[in-house]
Amino acid sequence: MTEPLTAPVPTAATDLTLWRGAARVLLQNWRGDSTVPSPGLYPHQWSWDSAFIAIGLRHLSVRRAQRELETLPLAQWGDGRIPHIVFNPAVPLAAYFPSPDFWRSSRAGAALGAPRHIETSGIVQPPVHALATWLVHRFDPALSRRRGFLERLRPRLAAWHDYLTGQRDLGGGGLTAVVHPWEAGMDNSPAWDGPLSRVEPVPAASYRRADLDHGASAERPTDLDYGRYVRLATDYRDAGYLDTAPLSFAVEDPCVNALLIASEHALADITAEPGGDRAPHERRAARLTDALVRRLWSPEEGMFLNRDLGPDRLVPARSAAGLVPLLVPGLPAHVADTLVRTAKGASFGLGTLPLVPSYDLRGPDFDPSRYWRGPAWFNINWLLERGLRLHGYTGEADGLRASMLREAGASGFAEYVDPCTAEARGTRSFGWTAALGLDLLAAPSLPAPRGGGDPAPAATRPGARERTAV
């Protein structure tokens, strides 16, 4: 990678080692126009992974970061959805399940405008994309304008948000809903146990789990959960990926909606950059924020909860998804303050544990090793760090930032870690762990502005200068 950097390479020995290690991961995982999360376990392009990766990749190559975000919309469906996987045709089908021949997107999704010549999954992932696009633009606005980066992405991002706030408002209350646990990103969180209990799993012999070729079974979802995931995906595919079809799983998730709100604020900035009207996006962000508090806030629990749209009730399971709305700029002050108290309490250990876990430490289903049932994830902690800084909790944000940097390097840029011991779990050399480590290394400890973006373009920060990549 030879493009000049616009952020200073660290000079401290420990920071330089971390920087080089993270850069090495991103170089190794780069596939020419996008970055795979992990060459073995996740050999294709994942939607929210690419958004997080672009945020860190901008510190190495702004052009590559832009390309990372530009490739996803090439697979966007006609109804506006950005699929959660874009398949690389060069990867053997057996390398990952569910593979392209399972999803059959170009045929099963044809009526909804699925691409004819690119195979994708039929479900989506959390909408981090507009936020990532704005951060990448802000890093080098001159290059972005020369390349027409925002001009090309803005209509696609707008269509993406229209889909989420339109067809996916399945509860009619103003929030977007997920129709599969994979769509929320936190695949096997205990928050899904109740809604999933209504789903009949497919027979275990009807598919082969490729994930167990690369990860310990004790750290992955159970066969029962996986059988239910496959059932949901099969039913959705066989219904032509229609959101109007009868759905056995539909949940309003606080993390997904918080990211949609943050990205809606970013889309307002993107729209205003060439002189457009930001007001419609600001109004939609305000409506979403009101709906988020009205439908998902639990004063008794001191955090946001998922809403199961089947029985139309809140799910009592306390996952870290309920803390992520701290990222929302317009969150009422008393709600933000309560979220921080909950995060610092015995259930999530902010400031006392190495990293915030993905699930309540005191919950009956907490597991420090099994995927999203307790381990700490770097992307969730990165979002919390930004939220803390946004709402004025600078000391807590600085402490979490330092801990994330320490554990990212010590774990070998692990996919996730034990929240109590920081022992590495999942795969190593994981894309967003490396990328977000780079972002934390490069970013100054300054409060984030109202929209959640960077305080200033990197080239205008004190001490910033052109560098070549290491």
From TrEMBL:
Alphabetically ordered keywords of this record: Glycosidase, Hydrolase
Superkingdom of origin: Bacteria
Gene3D superfamilies the UniProt entry points to: 1.50.10.10
Pfam families assigned: MGH1-like_GH
SUPFAM superfamilies reported in the protein's UniProt record: Six-hairpin glycosidases
Protein family: Belongs to the glycosyl hydrolase 63 family.
Protein name (Swiss-Prot/TrEMBL): Mannosylglycerate hydrolase MGH1-like glycoside hydrolase domain-containing protein
